[in-house]
Design brief:
The chain is mainly alpha-helical. The protein has 10 helices and no strands. Helix 3 packs parallel to helix 10.
Length: about 280
């Protein structure tokens, strides 16, 4: 476990990878999650998982896999880990090998997100900029042949980035103590503004469709206001990462026993008043 919120690596080759997850790796993640859905209810899509992962990268305390994995893919109960032993298997995985492969791919994405958020970027056009795995489902469906689009008619289709933002806020809501506002007013305002930029993406895009995020030449599916909100959310994620890195882990309050008054006899037995002895 490193100083940052790094999950337990399961595949050393992938865990050390610096490159972005390629299309094959992302497809493999989707297939694993699809297989999990055959055994477990409410297994989310990868877009939701990526938002959840990003929040964990930004969380003030390093949340261990024993806490976050069952919250995302299990019953929410923290896994009991024996020192020196591998992470117990979540019920939805068919075997421990599948779980370890998922964690290996998860680690590769974690490293990628951490690297992007720690890069000193000045513009979203920078190739090093953080890139959420946000989907434009409306654009993808609008680009389908008419017959296939008809099959989707009447279904509620999420807006661009909406599922990703819901995954992010799912992590925030399940570890509220790690996202509590700091005492410093300026830092608290910084936190609120950053979180509000993500929360805005959890809302439905009701603006006039002007662009297609799925295909630049595809039919309009996303409002320009939504595109701008998405950019603001990315900068908000950078702010959150830097905020908690600068403040460090939350310090536990040390509760002391009852202290003698300054004019009471010092409990050390010296015969002096506390203020003249150990209370000096």
């Amino acid at each position: 476990m490193t100083e940052q919120n790094t999950p337990i690596p399961a595949d050393e080759e992938l865990a050390a990878a610096d490159a972005a997850l390629d299309g094959d790796a992302l497809e493999e993640l989707d297939l694993i999650l699809e297989d999990l859905r055959s055994r477990g209810e409410e297994i989310p899509q990868w877009e939701f998982c990526d938002g959840f992962l990003t929040a964990l990268v930004c969380t003030r305390r390093a949340i261990p896999a024993a806490e976050y994995l069952p919250m995302l893919l299990g019953d929410g109960a923290e896994l009991e880990v024996t020192a020196g032993q591998p992470l117990p298997k979540i019920e939805a995985f068919k075997d421990i090998e599948q779980q370890e492969r998922f964690l290996a791919l998860w680690q590769a994405r974690w490293d990628e997100v951490s690297q992007q958020l720690d890069a000193d970027v000045k513009t979203l056009d920078d190739e090093r900029t953080f890139q959420p795995e946000a989907m434009d489902m409306r654009g993808a469906i609008a680009s389908l042949p008419e017959e296939e689009r008809a099959e989707m008619e009447g279904q509620e289709i999420p807006s661009f980035g909406q599922v990703w933002a819901l995954g992010f806020m799912f992590a925030v809501e399940n570890w509220p103590e790690e996202w509590a506002a700091p005492r410093d007013k300026e830092a608290a305002q910084w936190l609120d503004a950053a979180l509000e930029s993500v929360v805005a993406l959890t809302e439905d895009d009701t603006g006039k469709p002007e662009v297609c995020m799925y295909d630049e030449n595809g039919p309009a599916s996303t409002s320009q206001a939504r595109v701008e909100q998405f950019g603001e959310a990315i900068w908000g994620i950078y702010d959150l990462r830097q905020l908690w890195k600068s403040m460090g882990p939350r310090q536990e309050t040390i509760v002391k026993g009852v202290q003698p008054g300054r004019n009471d006899a010092c409990p050390c037995g010296s015969g002096k008043k506390f203020k003249k002895c150990h209370g000096a």
